[in-house]
Amino acid sequence: MKIKSLALMFLGVSAYAHFGMVVPSNSTVDDEKEANLQITYKFTHPFEGDMMNLALPNEAGVFVNGKKEAIKGLKELKEDKFSYFTASYDVKEPGIYQFYMDPKPYFEPAEDKFIRHITKTVVDAYGYGEGWDKPAGLKAEIVPLTRPYGLYKGNLFSGVVYYKGKPAKNVTVEVEYYNTKGLKAPSDTHVTQVVNTNEHGEFSFAMPLEGWWGFAALIDDDQKIKHEGKEYPVELGAVIWVQTKEYK
Predict the structure, then answer these.
(1) For the chain, how many structural domains are there in total?
(2) Range of the domain at 154
(3) What share of the chain is helix, strand, coil (3-state, %, to 5)?
(4) pLDDT tens-place string over residues 154-181
(5) CATH of the domain at 52
């Protein structure tokens, strides 16, 4: 009975993985009509669509031309009584734009820890094509080995997980599809796919559906947070979102 209960508990954790989300209206800007990007910031279970409350992020910005620029004017919205944010950003010149969010840590009593998912996505403007494989200088991040835009359904995505500037080996990377189509998984264990990084911090995953895919590398942070007189560990997530498309 204990074994069965433990198995069910782990299935529940697997099926309801947390993901920070930074998703723009498109992963490429090809003409001026697409230059006004609409960016959505959420904290969610992306396949099932369940939301958690996202407080105003400690930092929301874009890394472009080797510099960080703050994203201003975040607008708070509600979904099922939970807060999330949107913002507009005007792309004015060719470049690689890494949009990111560093949220306020979220306390998850069911897991007895805080969750801080540093999340990013990469947008190419006007076919710039250079610098998508450069880090944005975040405490934890996934640096792509595969170009993270212009991807087809079925493409293999590879990346390197970095923590404090160094590759993170033997780290679990959870993968989920942003399910806006009401798809049903064959079982709970199909909801969240799992891969591990190798000794060089590298991982790969083939994306079978068109849409947005989230990759969350989960790291035990070196800092703890005191809450109601007790210190709690922090799950530091390095998260990246990539978009796949089909031929028209």
Answers:
(1) 1
(2) 2-245
(3) 10, 50, 40
(4) 999 999 999 999 999 999 999 999 999 9
(5) 2.60.40.1220
